[in-house]
Amino acid sequence: MKIFGLQLDIAWEDKPENFARARRLLAETAPPPDSLVALPEMFATGFSMNAAALAEPAGGMTEEWLAGMAREFRVHLLAGVAARGPDGRARNHALVFSPEGRLAASYAKMRPFTPGGERDHYVAGDRVRVFPWRECAVAPLVCYDLRFPELFRQAAAAWRPELFVVIASWPEKRILHWVRLLQARAIENQAFVLGVNRVGTDPHYSYNGRTLIVDFNGEIIADARDYVTSISATLDLASLRQYRQGLPFLADLAGAVQGDPGNPPP
Asked: What is the pLDDT of residues 213-248, one digit of tens each?
């Protein structure tokens, strides 16, 4: 079971150019069929507050492109998209497409980045999500969500996902927090964590990447550093499950988190 994180330099508000960049990196990476591949938050536009112009309706051009890439490369493709819901309001989504090009999961960022004005332009999601990928459960989250461990704990208490995927536009000046928080979330939830960030600049921030794969002990097993590149790892689920059995922290957590955590995996 292989996972891949694709670290891009995102062209500001230029969807066709970002489609081309992402496809080129995807082709260079050549992930095996049925792999899980993740692109950064708002990969097609950058972290733009121009939701009125950029957020698409369901099935829009970015979703069509992602569905086509998932089919072409026969992978499970997870990416960040600014999209409008049935109520017409924009949300910062993590979308997952199956190798058949079907929309398999959709998660809306629950903690919009208030210091960057995101809450003024994007509506917060209302629940965590978990989706099945081969033999494991996966929980997607978006950028600022990483600072709120209760979101991860809701998913862990209900479904014990083996993998969390955090897609982001995390600025260079707080990159140490990114690294430490990814490690903390992996240790707390006894899970692998894939954190996918971007490089380059936009009108507001500078980004130095550090797309990471972290194991359940908090050890960094792959690091993209500050390059346009991809990283990958093979998930050793047997070792993870043996570790959880020996240290049943998640069993003790179950029932401690109150409220409706969201949707169960299909």
From this structure: 999 999 999 999 999 999 999 999 999 999 999 999
Could you confirm whether 136 is annotated as catalytic?
no
| CA pair distance 12, 198, nearest whole angstrom | 12
Verify whether residue 2 is a known catalytic residue: no
Task: Please give the backbone phi and psi of residue 200, each rounded to the nearest 5 degrees, phi first.
Answer: 95, -160
Element (H, E) at 28: helix 15-29
Longest dimension (CA), the chain: 51
- Give the tens place of pLDDT for each residue, 128-151: 999 999 999 999 999 999 999 999
Asked whether the beta carbons of 3 and 36 are under 8 A apart, the reply is: yes
What gap in Å lies between CA 235 and CA 68, rounded to an integer?
Answer: 26
What is the number of alpha carbons within 13 Å of residue 6 lying toward its C-beta? 27
Q: Which one from 56, 118, 136, 143 is the annotated catalytic residue?
A: 143
Classify residue 73 as exposed, middle or buried by CB count within 10 Å of its CB (0-12, 13-18, 19+).
buried
Query: What is the spatial distance between Cα 14 and Cα 49, in angstroms, rounded to a whole number?
Result: 14
Residue 47 burial (CB < 10 Å; 0-12/13-18/19+)? buried
Residue 173: active-site member: no
Q: Could you count the other beta carbons within 10 Å of the beta carbon of residue 72?
A: 14
With a cut of 60, say whether residue 59 has pLDDT above it.
Answer: yes
Quote the pLDDT of residue 262: 46
Nearest to 108 by CA among 189, 41, 13, 19: 41
d(C-alpha 257, C-alpha 239), whole Å: 26
- Over its C-alpha atoms, the chain yields an Rg (Å, rounded) of 17
Out of 56, 63, 109, 136, the active site residue is: 109
